[in-house]
Amino acid sequence: MKKTLILILTTLSLTKAVGQEKTFPQDPQEAIFETSDIQNFWIAFDLMENSNINPFEAYIKNGTIGLQGFIPNRIISADSLLKMVKRRKQDYEKIRGIEVKIKEVEKKVKPYFYALEYWYPYAVYPPVYFVVGRFNSGGTTSENGLLIGAEKLTSLDHLPELVIHESIHFQQKWPDSGETNLLQQSILEGMADFIAELVTGIKGNQEANKYGNEHKEELCKEFTERMYKNDMQDWLYATSGKDNRPNDLGYWIGYEIVKAYFDKADDKKLAVNHILNIEDYDRFLKDSGYLEKFMK
Question: I need a labelling partner for 190 at 20 to 30 A (CA). Which of 11, 58, 119, 247 fits?
């Protein structure tokens, strides 16, 4: 990458991620950690045994705009949440008081936002909403900000990496078609892991990374045979049980593809810009060189 082209290429690569029509702060110091939904959850939780109505109706009704974005496909409804809380009451109890600890960790996370600003000066910093759901999502994004499932936070050690990972999803450009295949989705997840590690020094998906590196040859061969399909099974989010692989190997191979691209780049900051604004995933894969020997 010629340094004389940096300014021109950077200017051409400022396409914002899907969902950024709203205005969010570009100053990391203005990032907000919102934990009021956790407090409202415990109000409902403590009313659960002595109420003739479902107290989680109020939890949802009084929730933040972040919580509203967590309802489709996750909380589903107050009744669905009540059923899960009754079934896993003791597991929910394990996170009582976690909002205080989150506020303490917030002081550790914000410096990472400044590191993200270094690597990608065009980043924005939407609110981070900590909500309580049904143990089916540790983190996601909506058009209104980052959504973290507090009930999944059995440890806060990896919270900085998780928040930065979801922040990367908020910055990245998504495929224009709205539909993704395994290659695209793996790169989207892998880039979030890679840049989160670049920013925090924390490597995510330890189990997937260990298994992936130990079985690289056969997995790369399998991936090249399936990467243009939209069937994510055995690579993202769920496994069939056909072998002993862990979930989310797509994160591992996406990370490796992105890392290979980054390592080859002369200008690393410009490489991060290109990674976050991929237009052509086939070209990106080819430029990375990662799967070249498996693609006949």
Answer: 11
Please check whether residue 36 is in contact with residue 109, taking contact to mean a CB–CB distance below 8 angstroms. no
Q: From CA 24, how far away is CA 107, in angstroms rounded? A: 20
With beta carbons less than 8 A apart as the criterion, state whether 106 and 141 touch.
no
CB-CB contact of 114 with 31 (8 Å): no
Q: Between 40 and 240, name the one with better pLDDT.
A: 40
Is 10 a residue whose pLDDT tops 90?
A: no
Instruction: Confirm if 260 and 287 have CB atoms less than 8 A apart.
Output: no
Q: Give per-residue pLDDT as tens, 102-155.
A: 999 998 899 999 999 999 999 999 999 999 999 999 999 999 999 999 999 988
Predicted local distance difference test score (pLDDT) of residue 1: 41
- From first CA to last CA, the distance across the chain in angstroms is 27
As a whole number of angstroms, the distance between CA 261 and CA 265 comes to 7
For residues 233 and 19, what is the distance between their CA atoms, to the nearest angstrom? 27
Residue ranges covered by each domain of the chain: 24-171, 178-294
Residue 261, C-beta contacts closer than 8 angstroms, at least 6 positions apart = 271, 274, 275, 284, 287, 288, 290
Residue 120 structure tokens? 């990608």
Burial 63-89 (b: 16+ CB within 10 A, else e): bbebbbbbbeebbeebeebbebbeeee
* Residues 6 or more apart in contact with residue 240 via CB below 8 angstroms: 233, 234
What is the C-alpha separation between 42 and 35, in angstroms, rounded? Answer: 12
Question: What tokens appear for 184 in the block?
Answer: 């695209």
Which whole-number Å values give the CA distances from 72 to 66, 75, 134, 174, in the listed order? 12, 7, 12, 20
Contact indicator for 281, 288 with CB cutoff of 8 Å: no
Tokens of 33: 């950690």
Give the C-alpha separation, 64 to 295, whole Å.
47
Distance CA(39)–CA(37), nearest Å, equals 5
